[in-house]
Backbone:
C-alpha cells in the first residue's frame, strides 16, 4: 500500500533552514614565518576566525594596560596636561590659602573703612550699629575655652599654685646685684 506522505531526500533542507554546501568548511587562517633565502617555513600557526579576533582584542588590551601603567607609575604623567608636579601642587595649595586669607583681610578692611567713613560723616545710626558689630566680632575672636567657668578642681589647683608662689624664694625683692638674701636661722 503506498503511503500518502511524500518522502524528501536527505540533502534537501527543511523549511526555514539555509542550504549548506557539503564541501564548505570553517574559515581557518594560517600565520607562517618563511625564510626568504630558502623559502622554508620556519614557524606556522593555524587559527580559526574566532581565535584571530580574540587574539587581536587581547593584543589591544595588553598594549592599553602597558601604556596606562607606563603613564601612571612613571614621571611621564607630568608631561600630560592636567597633571602637576609635586612641588607645583604644594605651591598651588599654599597660594590658595594665601589668597583666601588676603580676601578675608580685604573684606575686614573694607568694612572697617566704610564704618569709619560713616562715623566721620556723623551718621549716628551706623555708628551704634558698628559698635554692636565690633563687640560681636571681639566676642567671636575670644577662644571658647576662656568663656567657660572654671571647675572646682581648676580653682583648687590655682589656689595651690598661688600658695606655693607666696613662700618661694624667687618672689622676694632683693638689692640690685644680689640674686637672693639668706638669713641665719639662729645667732
Residues:
Amino acid at each position: 500500500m503506498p503511503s500518502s506522505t511524500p518522502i524528501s531526500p536527505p540533502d534537501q533542507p527543511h523549511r526555514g533552514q539555509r542550504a549548506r554546501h557539503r564541501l564548505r568548511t570553517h574559515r581557518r587562517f594560517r600565520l607562517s614565518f618563511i625564510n626568504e633565502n630558502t623559502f622554508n617555513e620556519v614557524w606556522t600557526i593555524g587559527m580559526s576566525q574566532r581565535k584571530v579576533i580574540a587574539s587581536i582584542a587581547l593584543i589591544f588590551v595588553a598594549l592599553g594596560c602597558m601604556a596606562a601603567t607606563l603613564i601612571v607609575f612613571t614621571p611621564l604623567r607630568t608631561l600630560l596636561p592636567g597633571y602637576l608636579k609635586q612641588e607645583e601642587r604644594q605651591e598651588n595649595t599654599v597660594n590658595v590659602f594665601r589668597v583666601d586669607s588676603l580676601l578675608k583681610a580685604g573684606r575686614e578692611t573694607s568694612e572697617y573703612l566704610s564704618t569709619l567713613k560713616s562715623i566721620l560723616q556723623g551718621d549716628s545710626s551706623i555708628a551704634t550699629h558698628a559698635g554692636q558689630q565690633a563687640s560681636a566680632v571681639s566676642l567671636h575672636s575670644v577662644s571658647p575655652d576662656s568663656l567657660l567657668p572654671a571647675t572646682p578642681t581648676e580653682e583648687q589647683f590655682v589656689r595651690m599654685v598661688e600658695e606655693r608662689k607666696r613662700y618661694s624664694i624667687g618672689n622676694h625683692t632683693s638689692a640690685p646685684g644680689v640674686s637672693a638674701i639668706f638669713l641665719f636661722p639662729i645667732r
